[in-house]
């Protein structure tokens, strides 16, 4: 999901530099995976950020982390860390979160997997403000419902919801 949103914001920056003057990406560090933890798995958005020559910051916690420069807006998409109030409050326009469910339904991690496990006929995407102390409890700004096609996989839903969320974010 995050790759779709990053590309949409990057394209907006290319078209309308007055709206998006710069983009930095914060992602989790690469992790060791596989038998014996011998392979290093790169976070997919890291490669896209590098390709687009965007500022990249890999962190596992916000403790003692300070942004390298002032910023206007924080956008979180499938990030997995709670952005602390000090950063949200430090952003001129606060923070936005894109969540792959129709909140308040399926708050928290793995909403796509929960949609499939519960055999839901529909799902959706939510754009909300970031809450300073709780995941997925911000003010809902926009939502779009989408049907769940039969025999969908998590990857299918990401590929369906990702572009919907990216468009929502870019127009927002």
UniProtKB/TrEMBL annotation:
Catalytic activity, EC: 2.1.2.9
Organism annotation: Hortaea werneckii
InterPro entries cross-referenced by the UniProt entry: Formyl_transf_N (IPR002376), Formyl_transf_N_sf (IPR036477), Met-tRNA-FMT_N (IPR041711)
Domain Formyl transferase N-terminal: 10-161
GO terms for MF: methionyl-tRNA formyltransferase activity
Record protein name field: methionyl-tRNA formyltransferase
CDD domains: FMT_core_Met-tRNA-FMT_N
Any one cellular-component term (Gene Ontology): mitochondrion
């Amino acid at each position: 999901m995050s790759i779709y949103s990053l590309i949409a914001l990057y394209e907006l920056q290319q078209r309308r530099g007055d709206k998006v003057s710069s983009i930095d990406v914060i992602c989790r560090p690469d992790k060791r995976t596989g038998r014996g933890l011998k392979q290093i798995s790169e976070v997919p958005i890291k490669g896209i950020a590098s390709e687009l020559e965007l500022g990249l910051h890999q962190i596992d916690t916000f403790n003692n982390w300070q942004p390298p420069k002032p910023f206007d807006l924080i956008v979180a998409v499938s990030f997995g860390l709670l952005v602390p109030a000090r950063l949200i409050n430090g952003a001129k326009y606060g923070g936005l979160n894109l969540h792959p469910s129709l909140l308040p339904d399926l708050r928290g991690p793995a909403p796509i997997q929960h949609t499939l496990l519960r055999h839901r006929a529909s799902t959706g995407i939510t754009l909300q403000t970031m809450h300073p102390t709780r995941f997925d409890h911000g003010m809902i700004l926009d939502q779009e419902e989408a049907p769940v096609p039969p025999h969908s996989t998590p990857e299918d839903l990401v590929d369906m919801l990702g572009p919907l969320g990216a468009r929502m974010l870019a127009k927002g």
